Please model this.
Amino acid sequence: MRAARFWFVTWIALILSATAAHAQLAPDPSGPHLALRLVAETTTPAAGNEVTLAIDSRPQPGWHGYWQNPGDAGFPARLDWNLPSGVTASAPAYPLPQTLLIAGLMNHVFEKPYAPLVTLSIPPGLTRGTILPIRLHTEYLVCTDQICVPEAADLATTLTIGDGAIDPGVRARFDGWRQAIPKPIGSPATYQIADGRVRIAVPYPADAPLGDAHFFAITPGVVAYAAPQTVSRDGDRVVIETRASGGEAAGSLEGVLRIATDRGLSLTAAPGVVASVDAGSTGVRAALLAFLGALLGGLILNVMPCVFPILSLKALSLARAGIDERHARREGVAYTAGVVLTCVALGGIILALRAGGSAIGWAFQLQDPRMIVVLFVLALAIALNLAGLFQIPTPRFVNRAAGSGGAFLTGVLAAFVATPCTGPFMGAALGAALVLPVWAALAVFAGLGLGLALPFLLLGFVPVLRRILPRPGAWMRTFERVLSVPMFLTALALLWVLSRQTGNAGVALGIGAALVLGALLWLAGRRQARGLAGGALAALALVGVGAVGAAAVTRLPHQASVPVAGAEPFSEARLAALRADGRPVFAYFTADWCLTCKVNEKVAIETDTVRDAFARHDVAVLVGDWTDGDPVLGRFIQAHNRAGVPLYLYYAPGAGEPKVLPQVLTPAMLAGLAE
Model:
């Protein structure tokens, strides 16, 4: 019944997609959305031998083809061979697919060039010079995230019986295609279905690396494709546990275990008993480590230029005369609640959007120029407040909720303006959060908030720390003016990011918003100086200018930046080509709105020391610009267990997996990579 429903839904979707494609894409002169070519490893095979054919498949950007088991939707390519008498063709061997989750449906797809391999068996006894015409008619489905188009192609090549010689260049190309095909694991695997769950035990050495593990089922009707998978290591085996599809498999279960981003092992599992792995303690340890990493990362965020002024002001507020112990603790708890709840809310949004198929990460909101406008207005208002132009009023409902002078709202503000920054420990911790259970992931985001709020929380609860603070006095006003400088610089940086996303029109809009906001806040400050109420005017100016600016801004097509001389824009195809040539590769992923990224680029990556070292050792540099939230880059970043940028990878020649570098770089660290 489930299989019938699957095919019914697939064909209905196909019919609707074909109708939409006919209406929307028929005039497209660019040809097929999946270009196919039949390539023979040798055109002169020897009689009685075998020859490998590759179906060289190249999707257009934004389109994808399907694996042999497409997942919850779609269908695999149908191959109809027309072969000379005695020649037989094997089933195609597919490379490792990618996962694509759309609207809760898991798809097994290829978004970059790929090549299924087919082996032809040539009958013995054929004389040299015998012509063997090979014909293939194939029907397949090609899709974007929104529409699907059924296509067909007629492919052909001609073989001539000869000595079986293979051109070295062709051999190298086929070697690359064969490397992408999952290798047989060579040992028996076992699976068990019980209580609506399926467990698969795969022999795998305990000391062998395992990253980004995922099981792709070839046999249908066993595994629920979109269900989360728990991968546990138990000595010399790996146990995959997930939800069963609802049916009982009568025989063996075939599939592929992904063991790295571009490597997989094919296996056949027989029915049997699979003892469960006590993943509870392992999961708790992983969650605890991620929580501690997020805690330390949040703590370091306090020294960032957009957060430090806010923390300093809240700390100095506790130094004012008349604040008793109870009041100080209320301030600390309220500020912490604002920070933690904001981080958890942002984390919950990230998890929900990723579950829906979006490839987003930390600071995802900064990929939208409207949010940049809002943050620019907010940072400018804070800077003008610190400069003494006006006083920020505290809404009464905040006082009632937080119980302490707007500390809750200040905590919300501190967490929100900290999102462009990523420090040490944060990347790995937030990356781990994306593969942990939801409860553990939200705990990691809460740990980030707790780390960010910890200094002020300690000031509220530890009297000796408050006594260390300088006594209040006239110097505090001067200190506030000094703190306005980093906030003005933050606003200027946001204006630069806005220019990168929207062009000169965005800069003009930002300057106009700054002038209007400054004038209105100056009027509010003048009223406050005369003892009149100016809070309503200040709040209206902040909300009004931010809302109008966000509504008026228009995104332009983003031009990816490649700041390093000789660097190239990142693509997985280019990375594969460079690695096939045996060159070392330094790939880094950045965004205009990522403060940590830009500091690393100026302090380390773009220095003469690094440039000269890379030139001496012929290190190729690839730059992935994630400013506009490119989903292809997002999925690649996610595959390396990171929740966002920066991400720095070094591929040594001949190495299987890249070296993941720290999120704070030094010239010596980069220069020493190729030594």
In short: The CA atoms of residues 650 and 659 lie 5 Å apart.
